[in-house]
Amino acid sequence: MTTHENTDSNISVEKSDDFAIVSEGGAMPTEPEGQSEKSSWRFSKTFWFANAMELCERAAYYGFFIGITLYLSSIVGFSDIEAGIIAGLFSGTLYLLPPFLGVLADRIGFRKSMIIAFSLLTIGYALLGYNESKILVICFLIILVFGAAFIKPLITGTVAKTTNATNRARAFSLFYWTVNIGAFSGKVIVPYIRQGMGLEYVNFFSSAVAAIALLITIFFYFPDQGESEQKSAKELARSLIGILTNARLLALTLIIAGFWTVQQQLYASMPKFVIRTVGQAAKPEWIANVNPFVVVLCVVFITQAMRKRKAINSMLVGMFIMPLSAFAMSLGPWLENLAGNAIPLAGIIFHPFTLMLVVGIGLQGLAECFISPRFLEFFSIQAPKGEEGLYLGFSHLHSFFSAILGFFISGFLLEKYCPDPATLPQGLSPEEFAKYYEHANYLWYYFVGIALLAAFALIIFKLVTEHVDKKKEQALDTK
Length: 479
Hints:
Layout: E1 19-23, E2 26-29, H1 45-65, H2 68-75, H3 80-96, H4 98-108, H5 110-130, H6 134-161, H7 168-196, H8 201-220, H9 233-245, H10 247-263, H11 265-268, H12 270-278, H13 284-288, H14 290-306, H15 311-329, H16 332-339, E3 343-345, E4 348-350, H17 352-382, H18 388-392, H19 397-417, H20 430-435, H21 443-477
Antiparallel strand pairs: 1-2, 3-4
Helix pairs in contact: 1-6, 1-7, 1-8, 2-3, 3-6, 3-19, 4-5, 4-6, 5-6, 5-8, 10-19, 10-21, 14-17, 15-17, 15-21, 16-17
């Protein structure tokens, strides 16, 4: 989520039928009714090159991000708590900056901005591979933040500018499939690099893939700038302040942040948890890919089945799946006691901890199918009339809050229940060593609690807002 891919701040939502979620937090438009005959799969070269660049960027980013806390602790030497704070700020900022950087990109031109962005990524990833100084690593992460945040509005803006009303839905469908192919492929490849060469070499992989995107930009990306559609920085700041001062919108954002706080654990807690409990042979990258796989497989069917239901009711289904997801991830020790430490399934031998993580993450993907397709619709309805587009520029503000909260909490929980082996006393016997991890699964109970709190908060939100709206209608009827 996963993830997590922003749509351009200029894209508005008029009805829920136009959107589905592919995963990694992105809304994938589906083809509107009545346009199938006029629409075409033919797009400009700029469109296809933009998609190729996005595929590279997502492969580089998620290949790096799945191991960011491992890198910060194992290679750089930060504690679990410090790594969580740094990774949370890194991820959270990525969701706050894109609308503002889109304004800058619109002024200096898409091509120049794209060259700047991929240059920053290529250099930033490479420097992370060469340097292990704590101060320098933080500086290089800042470089990556600006490079990655720059790209989000650039690519979606390019897709919007190279399409028209008849083919835009199909274009964004292709774009978001590309997003997920890139994210999925990056996480498939990096375990071989991490286990074969070393964790630090993953940075060089990401740098190389970003460099490919840079070369595509330099030699093949020549967009027609077209008419500017970006909002001004003043308008964006006003919409952000409007969300933060609108009690209903802020409450909804914070409640949904509870869902994404649990979802963030794919990157915050799960990689360290599985490697420290199962061993270095574990592949958290592949486990994390269960989420987009389930979303891609199920989202169309679930969205279709729930299309006649109210958006908030669909979201509630997903919110109550999330506690089950976190609870399933805690059941590794129970399954190990029941079936041993090697469970054959579909021709694959699973460690019980790994198998329960797969089950839990699969449930997360299922929950996302119920929540994400309807959130943009519901968020836009709560926005002031005529300002839906502006407000939707910050519809992923929940990811800003959840990234910071999720990674911060993760660092403390890992240190308490699943500590870094490097911090343990030397010369421990296997039995003594195992005692430090006998309650590692307890960390998932905290996320069960967060998910339940968010689910019940959404029920209260629904009841209160429906009551307020009903009173407003009654007041209007009496006039």
